[in-house]
Write a structure and sequence with these properties.
- By secondary structure, the chain is mainly alpha-helical.
- It has a single domain, classed as Orthogonal Bundle (Chromosomal Replication Initiator Protein Dnaa, Chain: A), CATH 1.10.1750.10.
- The radius of gyration is 14 Å and the shape is globular.
Length: 118
């Protein structure tokens, strides 16, 4: 598989790191699990949420998000679709979703605050 690389601005890198850290904390996982290749359901779900959040917040292309997670664009497309699917069929995920969105918003605000201070 051809490896692609995504060049992000420093603010974008900070936001990506913050989103990954928040999603990992929400799912009680380490950052390495999210960025790894495990196929355990809870890890895959968290990874898909992180992919969808990063794509949404930074408006990155599927290949760019894939480069962050060392996945191809098709995996990112599948992950983003799965998040929508989880919201429509999984009650526990749907109940957890507002908390996830708050964590992402907090990460975004924290990164924006750090930019203003710098």
């Amino acid at each position: 598989m051809k490896r692609t690389y995504c060049v992000l601005a420093p603010e974008q890198e900070m936001l990506v790191a913050a989103i990954i850290d928040e999603i990992a904390a929400e799912y009680r996982l380490t950052r390495d699990f999210l960025l790894g290749c495990s196929k355990r359901r809870d890890i895959v779900e968290a990874r898909f949420v992180a992919m969808a959040a990063i794509r949404d917040q930074l408006r990155l292309s599927y290949p760019d998000v894939g480069a962050i997670f060392n996945k191809d664009h098709g995996s990112v497309m599948h992950g983003c679709r799965q998040v929508v699917n989880y919201l429509s069929v999984d009650r526990s995920f749907k109940a957890r979703w507002p908390k996830i969105l708050k964590r992402i918003a907090a990460a975004h605000a924290r990164v924006a605050g750090e930019r203003e201070v710098a």
